[in-house]
Amino acid sequence: MPAYKYDPSTDIPSLSSKVFLVTGGTAGLGMETVLQLAKHDPARIIFTGRNVSAADKTISAAKKVNPGLDIVFMPCDFTSLDSVYAIGKEVLKQNLRLDVLLCNAGVMAVPAAVTKDNYEIQFGINHIAHALLMKVLLPLLQRTASLPNTSVRIVSNTSLGFAGSKGIHLDKINAPGASSFIGRWFRYSDAKLANILYAQQLAKHYPEITSVAIHPGVIITGLVSSLPLFDRIFVFLTTWWQQIDESDGVKNQLWAATAGDGVANGAFYEPVGVIGRTTKASLDVKGAEKLWDWTEKELARFE
Prior knowledge:
- By secondary structure, the protein is an alpha/beta fold.
- Helix content is 44%, strand content 13%.
- The chain has one domain (15-302): Rossmann fold.
- The chain is globular and about 50 Å long.
- This is Short-chain dehydrogenase/ reductase-like protein.
C-alpha cells in the first residue's frame, strides 16, 4: 500500500471565496472529496448524484465537519444529457463563480447497455455527459478565471485502465457493445482513454483553465463491489498489492484541485501529483483532436 506523503488536512490551503462542483458526490471518492474540501472553508460546495437520501448523508457529514458550510445538492442523471444540461444551466443561474469542477461520477465494466441518448453507457457517462457539463459551465469557469488571484481547474477522474485501449472507435459509440467480460473492460478502457485525451484538448482550447486527468489509485469502492463476482475476483487478483482505501484514493484529485504551482495544464497524474505513464494511444494527438471534434458535433444541439 503506497504511503502518500500528501496530507489534505495540512496541505490544502484555505479555500475561502472558492466554489467547487463535485459530480458523484453521494458516495465513495466523491463524498470523501466533499468532506475533505469542507474542512478548508470553501465559499460553496455543489455536488451531484441520483440518490437523495445518500445526498442527505453527505450534507450531514459535511455539516459535522463544517457547521457553517454552504453546500448544495443537485440531483442529476448522467445517463441523460437533458438532465446534465439542466443542472449545468441551474449552476449558471445560481452562482457568480466556479473555481473547480471535479468530474468524479462514473461507472466501470458494467453490462452492455446504452444511455437515454443512445451512447454506449460507459462512454456516455464517463465522457460525453461530463463533456456536456463542461461545455455548459465554460462561460462561468472563464469568467472566474478572469478574476484576480484565481486558478480555475477541471479535474477528470480516469484510471490506469486506459492502457487497455488501442484507440477509441467512435463509429461504435452508438451501440451497447459485446456483453462478454472482455467487452465490458475494453469499453471501460476506451472511456478512460477519452478522459485523458479530452483533458489534453481542453488545455489546448481553453488555456486559461487548468484541465487535468488523474488516476486516484486502486480503491475498492462501490464501482468494484457492485461488479459481478468474476470481475471482482479479476480486480483483486490483478491489483491486490496496489489497493488503497478512500482516504488515500482521494488525495490525487484533491491535490490537482487545490495545489498551488506545479499542476501542468493537460497533464495526466498518478498518485500523488506524479506525471503518469503513457501509451501510444494516449499520446495520439490526431486521435485527441478527432475525439474533440466528434464530441463538439455530438453536443452541438446544446448551444
